[in-house]
Design a protein that fits this description.
This protein is of the alpha+beta class. The longest helix is centred in the middle third of the chain and has 21 residues.
Length: 65
């Protein structure tokens, strides 16, 4: 039986930078939701590269760490 999931995955670079991706998924299980979200992130990254880079829809800048 499928369930609705809000799935967030995070990629952390060697420099400590973080790329977060959140997707609303309908899936059979937690593992399937993660796999679908990872596929969507990969597709989104490919599309961003093909389009020449991301458009910035929101920003948040803070001082320090």
């Amino acid at each position: 039986m499928s369930q609705d999931y809000c799935c967030k995955i995070v990629h952390i670079t060697d420099e400590g930078d973080k790329l977060e991706y959140t997707a609303n998924i309908e899936a059979e299980s937690h593992d399937t939701a993660v796999a679908i979200t990872a596929e969507r992130l990969t597709a989104s990254l490919h599309n961003l590269v093909a389009d020449g880079g991301p458009s910035i829809d929101a920003t948040k800048v803070e001082l320090g760490k």
